[in-house]
Write a structure and sequence with these properties.
Blueprint lengths: L1 E5 L15 H18 L2 E3 L10 E5 L5 H9 L4 E5 L1 H4 L5 H7 L3 E2 L7 H12 L3 E4 L17 H9 L3 E7 L1 H5 L13 E4 L3 E5 L8 H20 L4
Helix pairs in contact: 1-2, 5-6, 6-8
Length: 229
């Protein structure tokens, strides 16, 4: 079983964040300026983001713009879990993702290596970004979450900050060349929640652990849904 605790707003505790990768730092300010000017980027709920220490950001997912919006809205550098087709979208993408310290993950099977790298990032005091739906939602609505987010939340014990991103689906729906149309973009962060497993003396805890992951995944997805229009 598992239990969750809603954390107070922006606790100023924990380790300092790792430095921004050079490419991340170089792109962040001009990209945010462009999104504010041309797409009227709106960022709400930043008081819920911890001031220090590791945490997970869990958000809905429509396309590549979601990572861009989060990357310029969260004050800490984010290491995103990235699926193969995004990692290898163009010949330049693998180099780009390595330079901004993304973490490749295979969604077709349990990727222990990717989850281990994400846990190490959190142990180093960093922030990890995850899209629990896995692949892009092609219907413009929130899909069911995959259990990887619960596994990370339970194994690490770090706060999970839900984020609801709006406008990215409309910006790229039916667009040629992945060039977004000018529609308002926004992200809203909700209260952080910490999850922990409740240990029980049972002979075989396999089903118990599976149920805990399902409950935590559902709770995180509910938190994301509450932030969407």
């Amino acid at each position: 079983m598992s239990r969750s605790t809603v954390l107070p707003a922006s606790p100023d505790v924990g380790r300092a964040w790792p430095q921004f990768p050079l490419l991340y730092r170089a792109l962040r300010a001009p990209v945010r300026g462009a999104l504010e000017r041309w797409f009227h980027l709106s960022v709400e709920g930043t008081e819920h983001l911890p001031h220090r220490g590791p945490y997970l950001v869990a958000a809905n997912h429509h396309n590549y713009l979601d990572g861009v919006v989060l990357g310029v809205s969260v004050p800490a550098p984010i290491a995103f879990l990235v699926m193969p087709r995004v990692w290898r979208a163009t010949p330049l993408h693998p180099m780009f993702h390595r330079h901004i310290r993304s973490i490749p993950i295979n969604l077709e099977r349990p990727d222990v290596g990717a989850l281990r790298r994400a846990l190490h990032r959190l142990q180093d005091g960093g922030v990890v970004g995850i899209f629990p739906e896995g692949p892009f939602s092609v219907r413009g609505r929130l899909e069911s979450g995959l259990p990887g987010v619960a596994l990370l939340a339970l194994r690490s014990g770090v706060p999970v900050v839900p984020a609801g991103i709006r406008g990215t689906f409309e910006a790229l729906e039916g667009r040629w060349g992945y060039i977004p149309r000018r529609v308002p973009l926004g992200v809203r962060f909700g209260p952080a929640r910490r999850f922990s497993e409740m240990r029980r003396p049972i002979e075989d805890g396999t089903n118990d652990r599976r149920n805990a992951r399902q409950l935590v995944t559902r709770r995180i997805m509910d938190d994301i849904a509450a932030l969407l229009p």
